[in-house]
Write a structure and sequence with these properties.
alpha/beta; two-stranded antiparallel sheet
């Protein structure tokens, strides 16, 4: 299936490129000249939100992943590829979910576009697997079974600070006239992130327990590492598995009940099926914990941001650890 999708994407890119060349080039140039703003294209919500917080009204920012869409099944549309080809800065995450990006970048002809692969700006952690038959987490290293890096780097607020700083640098380099505005907005945004980080640290430092339970996939390795939290989960990372094993569910029910864990988390865009099952047999409450990978249409319309979603996570974490 992956090979078929890759082939289909290649054909789509060839078609779009041919169409672009057959279009009136002078019209495209006029559109570019008429715009006083730089254009930024981002693949996922966190980078869109970081960019709009830093750029304000000084940049045209496009989010490729539509609100309400499942991030891991995204494929670029023809208009998405055209937007990438015509932008000044293209920001993507990297990792397995962005395998399509390399084919697109190889096909387009924009020598002046700055490409930011955000996984290049932070220290990476290897994905971890779980083995509930042994009731323990399996440690991974780069020499073991060809492990891959966990791509959910933005779930770390500390990483969010680094990534925001990198975006500020590129905006300033591309649009030097507004450099001071970008710097000022970045300072304000970093202050908000630091306050949020301190709030999370206070919650963990004053908590009764140090383990969170996710009856779902687990894209929070960077988050729990920041605050030295332990975790139990149904699936590691963003596993493609759809049903956990009986031993996994049994272990999680027993752990939640025996440790009197008050909350079992589920992920945004999840049906919460496993979390509900654990809840029913353990008496724990279910709550959403957002990875901020994407937002719903309603959240987007209401102005939800990385910080507002993380503040909701902070409230949920406080309840889960006490």
């Amino acid at each position: 299936m992956k090979k078929f999708l890759s082939f289909a994407l290649s054909l789509l890119i060839i078609f779009i490129t041919a169409f672009s060349f057959s279009s009136c080039s002078s019209d495209k140039e006029n559109v570019k000249k008429d715009s006083s703003k730089i254009s930024v294209v981002t693949t996922i919500f966190p980078y869109y939100d970081f960019t709009r917080s830093i750029a304000g009204d000084k940049a045209d920012i496009k989010l490729l992943l539509s609100p309400g869409s499942e991030p891991h099944s995204y494929e670029p549309s023809p208009s998405d590829i055209v937007a990438i080809e015509n932008c000044d800065i293209f920001i993507y995450n990297g990792g397995e979910s962005d395998e399509w990006v390399e084919s697109v970048l190889e096909s387009i002809d924009n020598k002046n576009m700055k490409v930011m692969r955000m996984m290049d700006y932070v220290d990476l952690l290897y994905e971890q697997s779980i083995d509930h038959d042994e009731h323990e987490h399996e440690e991974n290293d780069e020499h073991e079974h060809g492990k891959e890096y966990d791509e959910h780097i933005w779930t770390s607020i500390k990483n969010a600070e680094k990534l925001s700083g990198a975006i500020c640098d590129e905006l300033s380099a591309c649009d030097f006239a507004n450099k001071e505005i970008y710097a000022k907005n970045t300072d304000i945004y970093l202050s908000k992130l630091q306050t949020l980080d301190s709030e999370m640290s206070d919650i963990v430092n004053n908590a009764k327990r140090k383990t969170v339970v996710f009856g779902d996939r687990f894209p929070f390795l960077y988050f729990v590492t920041d605050y030295s939290l332990e975790y139990e989960c149904a699936f590691p990372g963003c596993s493609s598995e759809t049903e956990p094993s009986i031993s996994t569910v049994t272990h999680m029910i027993d752990f939640t009940r025996n440790n009197q864990v008050p909350v079992v988390f589920y992920l945004e865009f999840s049906n919460g099926k496993v979390a509900k099952l654990i809840s029913e047999d353990s008496g724990a409450k279910t709550m959403r914990f957002s990875s901020c990978h994407n937002v719903t249409k309603d959240e987007f319309a209401d102005g939800s941001s990385y910080i507002s979603l993380m503040e909701q996570n902070a409230n949920a974490l406080k309840e889960a650890l006490n």
